[in-house]
Amino acid sequence: MISGVILRKFQLLDETLTELRSLGELTTDQLNEDWHIRKAVERNLQILVEIVIDVCHRIISLAGQTPAATGGDAVRRCVQLGALSDSESYRKMVQFRNFVVHRYEKIDVEILVDIVNRRLGDFEGFRNEVLRYEKGRD
């Protein structure tokens, strides 16, 4: 049975993806001119990556392992457990989150535009991999 915690995280993931997609195709000019949209995009992308990290930590816990020290370590350990493929996109998610959290003064809007316009499917891929893994454990 899939953990209720993981299912709730995936519900939030889906809601957040819907919000981001409701913005349509973004441009760098749009984010440079409208700080409201830029800040909403930054925050929603951070939330999505936090969900990835939280779910990875939960998988590790359910496997009876000691906690991961970092988000990157949590992703690596989920790859080792077979919950995730060894995808560069997951490592980039964690790197992006660290950048947003620690270098928040100025986020390159080109990165934000690229993620929203081209990489949101990576979060759905994460969800699908975890669901397959969890179903296989039943």
What would you note in describing this structure?
With 138 residues, this protein is mainly alpha-helical. The protein has one domain: bsu32300-like (Four Helix Bundle (Hemerythrin (Met), subunit A)), CATH 1.20.120.580. It is built from six helices and no strands. α4 packs antiparallel against α5. The longest helix is centred in the last third of the chain and has 29 residues, at 109-137. The protein is elongated. The mean pLDDT is 93.
**Number of helices in the DSSP assignment:** 6
- What name does CATH use for the topology? Four Helix Bundle (Hemerythrin (Met), subunit A)
CATH superfamily: bsu32300-like
CATH level 1 class label: Mainly Alpha
Overall number of structural domains: 1
Main sheet: strands, sense, barrel: none
Helix content: over 70%
- Spans of at least 5 consecutive residues with low confidence: none
Radius of gyration: 15 Å
Globular, elongated, flat, extended or rod-shaped: what is the shape? elongated
- Overall number of strands: 0
Question: What percent of residues are in strands?
Answer: under 5%
CATH architecture classification:
Up-down Bundle
Task: Provide the structure class.
Answer: mainly alpha
Helix-strand sequence: HHHHHH
**Kindly state the mean pLDDT as a whole number?**
93
Distance between the termini: 6 Å
Topology:
Elements: H1 4-21, H2 28-33, H3 35-62, H4 71-81, H5 88-102, H6 109-137
Helix pairs in contact: 1-3, 1-6, 3-4, 3-5, 3-6, 4-5
